Amino acid sequence: MLADVYHLAQQVTAYSVEAELYWIIADRGRLAAQDADDPLCLAGAAWAFGNGLRETGYAEEAIRVVDEAAEAIRPRLEDASNDLRGMYGALHLHAAVTCAREGHDGDAWRHWDEADRTAERLPSDYAHTWTVFGRANTDFHAVSVGVDLRTPGTALSRAEAIDLDAMPSVERRSRVLVELARAQRQRKDPAGALHWMGRAYKASPETVRYTPSARGLVADLAKETRGPLKTDALHLAEEVGVLAA
Questions:
Q1: pTM
Q2: Rounded Cα–Cα distance for residues 65 and 45 (Å)
Q3: How far apart are CA 216 and CA 135, in angstroms?
Q4: CATH class, range 1-151
Q5: Dihedrals φ, ψ of 214, to 5°?
Q6: Angle at 71 between CA 65 and CA 73, to 5 degrees
Q7: Under 8 Å CB-to-CB from 150, ≥6 apart: which residues?
Q8: What is the pLDDT of residues 45-56, one digit of tens each?
Q9: How far apart are CA 47 and CA 137, in angstroms?
């Protein structure tokens, strides 16, 4: 329970505290998981710690951490609980996105495929308690992988399979809409990007306001959009609280 509380604190403070405090929380969460000596808890610690590594520029270390954690629980999967399988899948989605951000196309889709196979072995409406791994989140991540690989056509094609209503997390619904906005911007379609950012903000204003990548995209749209949509872009920037030069 202590490890879970630290992991929750790590997620909440990811973009809102000094880096030193964030890493103290992350490290204590990992130590608590080691003391618990529970496979699910240890895998969760790797997932949470990997988030910190990835977002601070240590992609290779993040991939290594989640890979090792996934391999450690793989032998247990045959008779595993749904939550352990869910964590296994979440680790592979984590690796898929990290590989995609590094431009490793084959590795990214290899990890996504493993997560996809795992999701197929779980109930269709299953969602892991705090990683939200399940069928819907796996489909959402396919969009993210496509965007991070800078293949917007693939991302938009994958988006045809997603069902927003199947995702219990409003944050994840908003994040995938942000990803669709990123895909449209990659295609140099400001109208499409602005449309999806507006929907993302409507789904979860907090997600857009407090996620750096989403804030950055709103600011870019406010600066770059021309013509009749300029007013809409500036209005969204004002709502989100970013400055548009």
A1: 0.91
A2: 10
A3: 29
A4: mainly alpha
A5: -70, -45
A6: 105
A7: 186
A8: 999 999 889 988
A9: 15
Q: Angle at CA 143, nearest 5°, toward 125 and 72?
A: 65
Distance CA 140, CA 172 (A): 8
DSSP run (H or E) holding 96: helix 82-101
CA angle 164, 43, 210 (to 5 degrees): 45
The pLDDT tens digits of the residues spanning 180-230 come to 999 999 999 999 999 999 999 999 999 999 888 999 999 999 999 999 999
Residue type, 242: V
Find the mean pLDDT for residues 99-121.
97
CA distances from 194 to 170, 178, 185, 232 (A): 19, 10, 9, 8
Domain boundaries, the chain: 1-151, 169-245
H-helix or E-strand containing 214? helix 212-224
In one letter, which amino acid is 42? L
Token couple for 53: 């590594």
Dihedral Cα 35, 83, 170, 60, nearest 10 deg: 60
Lowest-pLDDT choice from 15-29, 32-46, 102-116, 216-230: 15-29
Dist CA 8 CA 145 (whole Å): 25
Digit-coded pLDDT (tens) for 137-186: 999 999 999 999 999 999 999 999 899 999 999 999 999 999 999 999 99
Output the DSSP codes for 11-68. HHTTTTS-HHHHHHHHHHHHHHHHHHT-HHHHHHHHHHHHHHHHHTT-HHHHHHHHHH
Residue 198 in 3-state DSSP? Answer: helix
